[in-house]
Amino acid sequence: MFQWLYKSAVYEAIDPDGHRVAVKVIDLYDDSTFATLSDDYQFEDYMNQIESLYHLTASKNEKHVIQVYELGVDSQEEYAGCVYIIMELGQESLDRLIEDLHQQYVKIQGVNRSNEYIPPHYRRLIWKQLVQIVSVLQRYNIAHMDLKPQNIVRVDNILKVCNFGLSKYEFDNEYDETPNFSAPEVLILQGPQYQPQADIWSIGAMLYYMTYGKQPNWNPENRAWEPPYGHAPVQDPLVRDLLRKTLQYYPEDRPALEVLKHHPYTARP
């Protein structure tokens, strides 16, 4: 039996051995939560995604993927019940980490003394791990499509992806208020949505956010990598180069992952 500590989007619990874990509870009885699961095919597709995440994390000790310890479905009638995913517990999400780093940096540098949103050293450390996360996804032919700071958690000093696109079937009351880091082709539902280049945009958008504190604006005529209005360009030319390469509107214009892995900003010690 688990001891519930507090409730949020995911529960924090203590397992029988006294270890803290995260438990995601998906209520299939709640019609509002699964308003888009309108037929058996969609339900089966959703369950396949959950099982794929479980098998990937349970059988592979991937450093940058949240570990799933147990998966269960409590079904009292066909296609009904609750899904329980018991996972490794992270200390904080990446969006909270970035905000904490920003607040600390403001106290040290002063509001008007630096154009950097977070310390450059931490920005590069986070970027390197974002590249590693996408490397894991591509190794297993996974296009996440919804990589964003809210879907990445810190476990000690390691960043781990904790949501494999399951949110496309989940109802989120705060969706419009949550910064979206998805690629243009995913948001406008045009073209091949499941290609890995969508994740290249997402990590570029997170680099932009760590640099300027805002999301990039995009449209076919817009240079999304340019700084927000009234903000000076980041001083580091390697960061500017990465932003220009990753935040291309068309997927075919974005670099392959190998280019990012060997980019001087990523590769330097």
What does this structure look like?
The protein has helices spanning 40-59, 94-109, 120-139, 184-187, 197-212, 237-246, 257-261, 264-267; strands at residues 3-6, 11-14, 20-27, 68-74, 82-88, 92-93, 152-155, 158-161. The protein has 269 residues and is of the alpha+beta class. It folds into 2 domains: 3-88, 2-Layer Sandwich (Phosphorylase Kinase, domain 1), CATH 3.30.200.20; 92-267, Transferase(Phosphotransferase), domain 1, CATH 1.10.510.10. The chain has a 5-stranded antiparallel β-sheet, with helices on one face. The protein has a 3-stranded antiparallel β-sheet with strand order 6-7-8. A hairpin with a 7-residue loop joins strand 4 and strand 5. Helix 5 (197-212) runs antiparallel to helix 6. The longest helix is centred in the first third of the chain and has 20 residues, at 40-59. The radius of gyration is 19 Å and the shape is globular. The N and C termini lie far apart (46 Å).
